[in-house]
Amino acid sequence: MCSNGWTGSSCDDDVDECNERPGVCEDARRSCSNNMGSFSCDCLQGYEEDASGYCRDINECSDPQLNECTQTCLNAEVSYTCGCKSGYKEVNFTHCSDIDDCNLAVLNDDMETCSKVKDYCKELHNLT
Ligand SMILES: [Ca+2]
Ligand SMILES: [Ca+2]
């Protein structure tokens, strides 16, 4: 009889718990990693283990180091999404660009002069 996690005639073969006991982690938010003599169940990417041992969604928006959003950030299960403030349009997942209101004919009708004031997105981008 071998100790837990070992098998074979001389008890030096590792038991692959992940393959032999599907669902051994008992939590869909954990993935099983086999190792010699044992195995581990770690929270999937996007989750972190809290004090009571549960895998919880990471709120990437709560920490600027965890997200790459340049303007607004919205936490989502496993992941997060970025958004743009009003007056900006999305360039890609993380970046926004200023909508140049001066180019919009509708403004030119009732404004004599128009000049771009600030481009927050560009400023933020330059900081990185
Ligand atoms: Ca093992
Ligand atoms: Ca999240």
TrEMBL record:
UniProt keyword annotation of Ribosomal protein present: no
GO molecular-function terms, A-Z: calcium ion binding
InterPro entries linked to this entry: EGF, EGF-like_Ca-bd_dom, EGF-type_Asp/Asn_hydroxyl_site, EGF_Ca-bd_CS, GAS-SHBG-PROS, Growth_fac_rcpt_cys_sf, NOTCH1_EGF-like
Domain EGF-like residue range list: 14-53
Major subcellular location class: secreted
Record has Glycoprotein as a keyword: yes
GO cellular component terms listed in the entry, alphabetical order: extracellular region
The entry's keywords: Disulfide bond, EGF-like domain, Glycoprotein, Repeat, Secreted
Subcellular location: Secreted
UniProt-listed PANTHER family: FIBROPELLIN-1, LAMININ G-LIKE DOMAIN-CONTAINING PROTEIN
Protein's UniProt name: EGF-like domain-containing protein
